[in-house]
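Memo to structure team: turn this sequence into C-alpha cells by end of day. - J.P.
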Amino acid sequence: MTDWTDPETFSAALDLVETREKGNYFEDFTEGATIEHAPGLRLTRSGNETWMAQTLNHDPAHWRTDAARARGFDDPPIHPDYLLASVMGPSVEDLSEKGGYFLGRDGVRFHRHGVPPGTELRVESTVEATRTSSSRPEYGIVTWETRGIDADDGETLVSYERTNMLPRREPAATDGGRSESADESPPGDESTPALPETFVTPEGGAFEDFRRAFDEAADRDAAVAYRHERGRTMDAVTVAALPLATLNTARQHHNAEAMRDSPSGEPVAYGDVTRSTALGHARSDERTYRELAFDDERFHDFVTAGDTVFAFTRVLDADGSSGPSRAGEVTFEHVAFTGDERPVYSGTRRALIDRVDASETTTDTQTTTHL
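Reply from structure team:
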C-alpha cells in the first residue's frame, strides 16, 4: 500500500501530477468581452476601519457619527480608498493573477458619495483593448474597464480603467522596440531636470490656503510642492493581510515561495495599500471634504516589508468656482516614495477641500528657495 506521506514518494508524485492553474493568459481576453467576477465583498465597518487605521486615513467623517452628519451623511460612510481596493481585489483572480507588470490605472471616478457599510458589491470588467508587447514577446498588454456595482440596486459606485502586461501561452514575434514598463521615460535628455527656483508651501489645509499658495507661485519660477512628515513602515498586515481582506489573490502579496526568484525576492505590497498610505499622509495636511477623481496612476517600483512609505504633493490647480459653497476643488499630484527616495506611486487627484470657516483667519504662506 502506497504511503503518500513518505517524503520521497510524495516528491515523486508532485513531479508527475499536473498543477490546476489559476488566472488567465493574454490569449484568453477578447476585446469587448465582459467578465462578471464571481466573488464580491460586503463592505463592512470593521473592514473599512481596519483599512483606514493601517493606512493612516483618519478622516473623522469615516469614523464618527457627528463628523459624518456635519458632512451630510446619516452615518460614517465607507472610505473611498477601501471601496476602490474592494472593487479591484475581486477582479484579480480573473484578470491579473497570472502576474505581469501593472502599467497603470486611469479614470477613477466615484459615482455615489457616502456608500454605507453593509453594501454588497458586484464587480464586472470589460476588455477595452489588447495588443502585443513590442519589447517582451512573452507578454501581451490588456486594458479593462472595471466597475464596482451596488448588488442591490445595480448602480455603479466606482469605475476605472487599468492596463496590465500578461504572460502569453506562446511568445509573439516583436520588433524588439521600446519597453512599455510604467516607469520608463521617453527617450531624450537624461540630465538632471531643472527645478523651480522657489517652492511654496500652503500654511494650512483649507481651500483658501491652497488657492493663496497657488496664486503666489503663479507667473514666477515657483511651484506649490511639499513633502509630508509622516511615514508608514510596511509590515505583514499591510503587505499580506489588507490585500487578502479585499479578496486580492495575487500571489505577489502573500506567497513567499512564488516570489523567491522574483526581482524583489519576497512578497510585495498591494499597490492600493501603498497608494492609500501615501494619500493618508497627504490628507492629514488637508481639510478634505470629498474625493472626486484620480487619473494617470502609475506604480513605479515594488514595496516590501520593512520599506517605509512617505508622500510628496504638488498642487496643480485650485478652483473655487465649482462644488458646494463650503468647499473648493483642488487638483493635486501625489508621489509615494520609500525611505531610500525611490518613487513607487504617482497620480493626479481632484478633491473638494473645505473652506475656512467665517470665524477663522488664515495666515501667510511659507516659501523655501531651491539652491
